[in-house]
């Protein structure tokens, strides 16, 4: 790693239909970095994700005026996760900061992120303390984190955002992950490097409306759950085992009480009831079989992602005394 006293920083910003606020955002970012004495040590990478407004032209103009700016222009809209990945791949700094261009992520906190990095944190994550979203989105967010953390071995911190800093070593490990359906924050957390956290109050958007509508947020949640946890595959199997167990117990009770003992309790199970329990038993067998198939599918799912077997944070060796 480069000497910490003289680091360089890459600031990666995905852009989609943000033409109206880009210049104000860029100037605010430069003012913060200049005030912190870091402006000459950073590069700013804008990843234009196939906007349908004039964002591309605005970024071209900014790049012509500012030598520290790099632009990545997509041929069409590939999504925020792809834009973040492209920016991280092109970053050459010893620390990479990612944030949105709508100014909800306060650029004033970037020096605090860098300070945490200077103190040894490999990953610094911005945690949203509150939100101006309506009650429906807040409820959906709480439900997602609750369900995800119950179903996955990997735990996501409620309120965690893409406003974060990663070390160069984290960048290298992140780029080794080859899957297509990428959830950047989830993959960075999966790598397991030392993390630090900074809470922030989201600012009001500089203009316009959020690019993530309800359906996109639901899709993001589903992709996060599927890509980071195979456990949803096992749910039907668990249900099948429960149904099979219950129907087996009921069937045993009927056989013993009705047939073997001659119905001493006068329960009078009808043929229809017996048939229903038998059908329930076979349904449980089918669902359990699907659960077994799901285990094989989960292994295929894991293998096709081609994630590394391990990630090395640091390694050292010492000479053996007496040799």
Task: Provide an overview of this structure.
- The chain has 323 residues and is an alpha/beta fold.
- It folds into 2 domains: 9-229, Spore Coat Polysaccharide Biosynthesis Protein SpsA, Chain A; 232-305.
- Helices cover 49% and strands 13% of the residues.
- α1 links the parallel β1 and β2.
- α1 runs parallel beside α2 and α9 (235-260) runs antiparallel to α10 (271-305).
Which ranges are low-confidence, i.e. pLDDT below 50, for 5 or more consecutive residues?
A: 1-7
- Fraction of residues in helices? 40-55%
Assign the CATH topology of the largest domain: Spore Coat Polysaccharide Biosynthesis Protein SpsA, Chain A
Largest sheet: 7 strands, mixed
How many strands in all? Answer: 7
Overall average pLDDT: 81
CATH architecture of the largest domain: Alpha-Beta Complex
Element-level helix/strand string: EHEHEHEHEHEHHEHHH
Number of domains: 2
| Alpha-carbon distance between the two ends | 30 Å
**Strand-residue fraction?**
5-15%
Under CATH, the homologous superfamily of the largest domain reads Spore Coat Polysaccharide Biosynthesis Protein SpsA, Chain A
In what order do the strands lie side by side in the largest sheet?
Answer: 3-2-1-4-6-5-7
């Amino acid at each position: 790693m480069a000497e910490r006293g003289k680091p360089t920083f890459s600031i990666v910003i995905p852009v989609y239909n943000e033409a109206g606020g880009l210049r104000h955002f860029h100037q605010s970012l430069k003012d913060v970095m200049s005030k912190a004495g870091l402006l000459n040590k950073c590069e700013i990478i804008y990843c234009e994700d196939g906007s349908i407004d004039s964002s591309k032209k605005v970024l071209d103009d900014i790049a012509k005026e500012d030598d520290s700016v790099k632009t990545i222009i997509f041929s069409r809209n590939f999504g925020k996760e792809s834009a973040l990945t492209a920016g991280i791949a092109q970053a050459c700094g010893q620390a990479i900061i990612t944030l949105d261009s709508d100014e909800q992520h306060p650029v004033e906190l970037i020096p605090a992120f860098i300070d945490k990095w200077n103190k040894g944190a490999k990953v610094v994550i911005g945690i949203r303390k509150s939100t101006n979203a309506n009650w429906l989105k807040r409820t959906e967010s709480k439900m997602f984190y609750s369900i995800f953390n119950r179903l996955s071995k990997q735990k996501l911190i409620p309120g965690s955002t893409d406003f974060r800093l990663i070390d160069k070593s984290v960048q290298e490990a992140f780029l080794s992950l080859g899957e297509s359906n990428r959830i950047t924050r989830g993959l960075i957390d999966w790598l397991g490097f030392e993390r630090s956290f900074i809470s922030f109050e989201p600012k009001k958007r500089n203009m316009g409306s959020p690019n993530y509508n309800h359906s996109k947020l639901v899709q993001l949640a589903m992709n996060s759950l599927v890509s980071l946890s195979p456990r949803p595959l096992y749910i039907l199997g668990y249900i099948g085992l429960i149904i099979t167990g219950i129907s087996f117990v009921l069937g045993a009770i009927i056989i013993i009480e009705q047939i073997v003992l001659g119905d001493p309790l006068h329960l009078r199970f009808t043929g229809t009831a017996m048939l229903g329990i038998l059908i329930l038993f076979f349904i449980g067998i089918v669902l359990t079989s699907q659960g077994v198939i799901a285990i094989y599918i989960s292994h295929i799912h894991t293998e096709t992602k081609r994630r590394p077997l391990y990630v090395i944070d640091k390694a050292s060796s010492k000479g053996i005394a007496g040799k």
